[in-house]
């Protein structure tokens, strides 16, 4: 049993080519917070799998590359099938501190379906943490626009720190979501669509050399895709057309 909740808390590390950061990540994680930790290597071309095998977590290597969203889908399903009540998404590049899940204690006790880690709660990550300016301004503008347009009360939509609850797993058709980075945006919209409880906590992030973020080229197309996903959300809310992700599980 973990040390801060009577619910079973699992960590799922998603990895692609992060060999340089894995040891630091393992040392950083407070093992007493989690009932179990899985490590999912997405068929990395470096030595991530071999490095991960040195440490005390359950390591799984995908035989083919599933993509960011595909790997996370597999991780979420594996953890909940194994008995998790809550699952924390952990990035193998060590950008986010997994121990910050402690800030979500009250939301977990209230059975929130999705908890977002935001870098924008009462602070400016560009000034305070060294977030690259282009990432900062695009994230800030798009998050503010999405929040106002769709009436979703979050300060950030484009973060890799998420905590998934059992009610999310039971009710959301997330398997129909994208296999790339767009998955992370879609799951917020469908959580809101099904009127599940969601909230956010304040987190910090690292932007050092070992961080393996979505590059600017892919990030540009990711942001363009956000507009189409917002359109599909509004269509579903208006009962005009329901994309598969907005159909009941």
List keywords for this structure.
alpha/beta, 38% helix, single chain, 249 residues, 9 helices, seven-stranded mixed beta sheet, Spore Coat Polysaccharide Biosynthesis Protein SpsA, Chain A
Largest sheet report: 7 strands, mixed
CATH class: Alpha Beta
- Beta-strand percentage range: 5-15%
| CATH topology term | Spore Coat Polysaccharide Biosynthesis Protein SpsA, Chain A
Structure, described:
The protein has 249 residues and is α/β, with parallel strands linked by helices. The chain is globular and about 50 Å long. The chain has nine helices and seven strands; from the N terminus they run E-H-E-H-E-H-E-H-E-H-H-E-H-H-E-H. Helices cover 38% and strands 15% of the residues. The chain has one domain: Alpha-Beta Complex (Spore Coat Polysaccharide Biosynthesis Protein SpsA, Chain A). Strands 3-2-1-4-6-5-7 form a seven-stranded mixed β-sheet.
Task: Please write out the topology.
Elements: E1 9-15, H1 22-28, E2 36-41, H2 48-52, E3 58-61, H3 67-81, E4 86-91, H4 105-109, E5 114-118, H5 125-129, H6 133-150, E6 162-165, H7 166-171, H8 183-193, E7 198-202, H9 216-237
Helix pairs in contact: 8-9
Quick structural gist:
By secondary structure, the protein is an alpha/beta fold.
